[in-house]
Amino acid sequence: MGEPATAEPDPAGAGDGVIATRALTKRFRGGQLAVDGLDLTVPAGSVFGFLGPNGSGKTTTIRMLMGLIEPTSGTARVLGQPMPRAARSVLPHVGALIEGPALYGFLSGGDNLMRYDAADPTADPRTRRARVTAALDRVGLTAAAGKKTKAYSLGMKQRLGLAAALLQPRRLLVLDEPTNGLDPQGMREIRTLVRELASDGTTVFLSSHLLDEIEQVCTHAAVMARGRLITQGAVADLAAGTRGRLVVTTPDAGDAARVLKEQGTGDIVVGDDRVTGEPPDRDLAEVNAALVSAGVRVRGFTVERASLEDAFVALTGEGFDVAG
Ligand SMILES: Nc1ncnc2c1ncn2[C@@H]1O[C@H](COP(=O)(O)OP(=O)(O)OP(=O)(O)O)[C@@H](O)[C@H]1O
């Protein structure tokens, strides 16, 4: 694909993705390979979850996408333009919330936004107040606009950071761990807001180390582990590609576990009145029949729908660190 002739972002929203990286790699000076040959494609209009345990390379990738650091090798395109080269023409179309907003605690939320807006050379000062009012309204902070931000909760600060990212119309929002450190209520508020933002067509790229968050909010996801991309695609497809767990409910859990093992079931976990495991690669009707003919009283026999967590474990062979 040739370079577009103008410095304007591709108006079609980048045919090959709002974000597209090819073999993107970052090796830090100390030798740490933080991102290793990443091929990422973020479809226009998606809510794209960038998922991985702490230290898997998410923040480093985001910093390369935003032109904050240079890749060691490979390419990154955002809105169809190469980064970091086209940062000046691309970044005005991108709202970013990376590592929490920088706020003046002694200023009100509204005044902090006025400062953000004033720092944008393309923002017309005559319409500043209207933009700030609209952004506060968008994130539900109108009532708290006059309060000093040092009195804000963490969730309110994150919402104010989002408001800052929304002062201008954006085609892409990049949010690095937007719910990190928030209580459940704060998390819900941010997730609701992300869904609302996406519903008007803005592409949202958000990183998270929380699997359930990605399942609740995102249409698409990429899974990172140790700097490498494990998989990417529609969230529904990612989980569907993995078989769920076989769950047998029975008062004879010990016997059931033995028979299930003979039948090739993997990773068996025995509970009080249930046994779960990875379904064997054979007709499950035969497995059920084997249980019954061994005298196991089977009260329930199902395969639970795979979650993204099951997919992650199946793909990496590792558990998912859900700390934090
Ligand atoms: N400036 C740096 N110099 C050297 N190593 C770094 C630097 N920044 C990050 N790393 C290392 O690169 C790896 C990936 O870090 P990164 O912050 O991108 O991961 P992450 O997935 O965003 O994790 P977290 O959620 O903890 O921020 C880690 O091993 C980290 O220690």
Automatic annotation (TrEMBL):
GO terms for molecular function: ATP binding. Keywords: ATP-binding, Nucleotide-binding, Transport. SMART domains: AAA. SUPFAM superfamilies: P-loop containing nucleoside triphosphate hydrolases (SSF52540). InterPro entries: AAA+_ATPase, ABC_transporter-like_ATP-bd, ABC_transporter-like_CS, P-loop_NTPase. Residues 19-251 form the ABC transporter domain. It comes from the Bacteria. Belongs to the ABC transporter superfamily. This is ABC transporter ATP-binding protein. It comes from Streptomyces bullii.
